[in-house]
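Take a specimen:
=====
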Amino acid sequence: MGLVKGMEINGRSSEMLGVTTQEFLLALERRFGERRRALLERRKQRDSRFDFLAETAHVRAGDWRVDPVPDVLLDRRVEITGPCEAKMIINALNSGANVFMADCEDSQAPAWENQIGGQESLFKAVRRTLTFTSNEGKKYALNDQLATLFVRPRGWHMDEAHVLVDGKPMSGSLFDFGVFFFNNAREQVSRGLGPFFYLPKLESHLEARLWNDVFDFAQDTIGMKRGTIKATVLIETLPAAFEMDEILYELRTHSAGLNCGRWDYIFSFIKKQPDQLLPDRSQLTMDKGFLRAYAQKLIQTCHRRGAFAMGGMAAQIPIKDDPAANEAAMARVRADKEREAKDGHDGTWVAHPALVPVARAIFDAHLKGKNQLSVLRSDVNITREDLLRVPDGNRTEEGLRHNVRVGVRYLEAWLRGQGCVPLFHLMEDAATAEISRAQVWQQVRHKLISVEKFDQVMREELADATGGMFSEARTLFRALSTSEHFEEFLTTPAYQRLIATEPK
């Protein structure tokens, strides 16, 4: 389906991929593709003894601030996230949240129909023409008052296998960004908004610099003023926690702050510190150890630079058939948001519209204005040791069983093209499966459990999990959990299986 020389598209056609859009995508990949691949190779060479970089000490010591954001972004106290599906987009934009982050990444399995269909839905949402009718005949439409739209493209590590440029798969990041930006940026600005993005899984300021150069090139290409794009970076990798100042500095003309991507951060900690055994995931709360340290460091760093410090995800979903359990879950949400607001976060994330008023009530009670940029947290002094401190806790058989039943069930849904999955009263995305298989791999590696014990737990916990893609999910989860070498991202091998099962 490629309409320009050098580009091949293996998937259904779409108005999102006209000639001029393809020319833009081609230019992005040719200009930045090799640099992306070199930075991914650099990740493999990085020293595992993490510390603050000596060569960027002047950046950390310098007196600089990020550029101001437009007024529409000054109040971000509640943000909701979800995949780029029409119904989800409508419900999220109508939810009463300040921001909706439309996710092309962890909550959206990257089947072609999901990616290109999601872009089509976002195109209509920007123009307020998006509607949806359920199989039961229920109609959904956008309200007059909507959340501000952000879009999260895939991380630098993901390819878009359906799009080849000069015979090589295009960057998933550049594809997601490029299609959305080229088709919508001018329209967003004309409506008093702008092209706003979330950037996932960065591991260094050099990767932030690459995004900044992409933004400059994109704006120059369509004749848009540099700095119109605003982007929030998720600090969800251990390496990035040591380069927060540097990441903000590289993106200072385009920065909308940093976010505590807590679930992926736990996964990254295990991956980068495999000999540091963590307790059960249920015990890894944000008030302890390395998680507490990095959240405090993020708030201090952001506010010193005039940037927003966004809190983490509340993944709970309503438990309609058990009022007592539902109230206990909401109490945990309130306690988590209370901590964030008191610490100085400017806003927080929720995964379900029912949590928007819960989170809003907490932040309304604590914020004296539109944000907490004035809360400088000069009391914070986070060291290297703090960022690497493992909290006390236990590793239990129940923790193992939970990792197996959640990890495999999520992976099965992902292989069917569903990336946002309700499991055991939580809305899970790919980070859940990553933590699950990483903890199992770590425990097998350190001989805390045997492969035989792991297999026994798999059989017992998944005895009733049949049909669908469960056979493939079991096989992949086991291979990832017992392999000698740790696979960087489970979505990389899973992607090949996902596209192999797509309709031709």
Summary: The chain has two domains: 7-387, 397-500.
